[in-house]
Amino acid sequence: MGIRIQQAEQRDRELVVSVMEEAFHDDPVSSWVFPDEAHRRAVHGRFLGVFVDVALAEGRIDIAEDEAAVALWLQVPAGAPEEEDPTPALMRQTADPDNERCELVGRLTGAIHPHDRAHAYLLMIGVRPDRQGEGIGVELIGAELERCDREGLPAYLEASSARSRVLYERLGFRFLGRAVDLPGGPPMYPMWREPQAR
Predict the structure, then answer these.
(1) Domain coordinates of the chain in residue numbers?
(2) Alpha helices (H) in the chain, listed in sequence order
(3) Beta bridge mates, 48
(4) What does CATH list as the number for 5-151?
(5) Residue 195 and residue 146: Cα distance in Å, rounded?
(6) For a designed S-S bond to 148, which of 119, 139, 153, 158 qualifies (C-beta 3.0 to 4.6 A apart)?
(7) Whose CA is closest to 1, among 127, 140, 169, 120?
(8) Are 150 and 78 in contact (CB under 8 A)?
(9) What pLDDT does 88 receive?
């Protein structure tokens, strides 16, 4: 296929949020955080905007040339963080202050995130629903995984569904064995990928 990828800048923020909103509207985790669909539609962009802002400030966002997909990456150093991550509280405060699930999902994924080795963290990837199944997401991820392989760097992510877990396994990720259990919600699957010889 061979898609061209560009790196997002601050001016691309609303585009990235829009792609993420479309891609994650029916996602099991998003549906758990915001069970009421009308409410989800109203606040989901603010919730996802926090992830976009973090990636713009501290990482990188890749955009497929036709704006059908985006991938949010962070570079995580080895060693436990010295202070508590403010992002989960910000997710709640920004999107839906009365909804503890906004914060809980971030706290639970943060608690299980490995910190013993430096790695590339695929915070989120979203493909517009009308373009899913075309391999765009695989190519978007693949570009970063090639870099990881060249540099001997592992990669990490949390799959938000059994379907996405299978996709990531095809890319060399392996389930770490302990799911993130959202109370009364779907499991999330922490996955790790060792660098591969090319």
Answers:
(1) 5-151
(2) 13-24, 28-33, 37-58, 87-95, 100-112, 136-151, 162-170
(3) none
(4) 3.40.630.30
(5) 9
(6) 153
(7) 140
(8) no
(9) 87
